[in-house]
Design a protein that fits this description.
251 residues; alpha/beta; 60s Ribosomal Protein L30, Chain: A; Alpha/beta knot; 2 domains; six-stranded parallel beta sheet; four-stranded mixed beta sheet; 8 helices; 12 strands
Length: 251
Amino acid sequence: MRENNNQEVFVVGKRPVLEALRARYPLRLVIFDKTKNHDAIMKNIFKLAKKQSVQILYRDESWFRRRFHQLNPQGVVAVGDTYAYADVEDIKIKKNSIILILDRIQDPQNLGAIVRSAECAGVSGIIIPDRNAVDVTETVMSISSGAVFHIKIAKVPNLARAVEYLKKQNVWIVGTVPNSKTPYYEVDYRSVPFAVIIGNEGSGIREGLIKKCDYVVTIPMRGRVNSLNASVTAGIMVFKVLEEKQKNNEY
């Protein structure tokens, strides 16, 4: 596992803090808003924090509003260790594995939404580049609803080499582009592990990565805008692969 350079991170919001505790992510402190009533999630957070010997503090609403007004803390934040990235080799590959490769996603809202969809679909791991892409920030943790604590995210210096590694592990690679003649639903996703490449919000997948794909597909659209958000594309793709594998009794 490889760490960020920052000293600590704030995990902001009820669901992210709860999921961090459920995953036993190394938290040092949980801070509650003393002016709010504790619902079932807050009570669960308190219980898990006490069980894991995490220090508990209380602050008033103005402290939360002043420090976390952009992230909606919902009355609770936690302080934890910097996010630890996996190595590509840490991602377990089985016949039914689904992997996401993100080529230079730069919006933390997009990355957070992608991670949340990926975790819900049972994705084995996510691979991101270490340059020209957003890291796992506090915003990403919050938008993912804590899904970042339950899925391996590998940061690599070279996505093309990561793809080559996956292909040696018999992983098939599918890239998503707007102008392919092959609809995404015409690929047979059964019986082999698949990695789905999602491109940058503006420029898509780099040409060098497209050339390494076994399939290049598109999501047909009939509207006038004719463009999907990267997180929506990722959600459509991973759940399609999941659907086909479930039909094939791979789980």
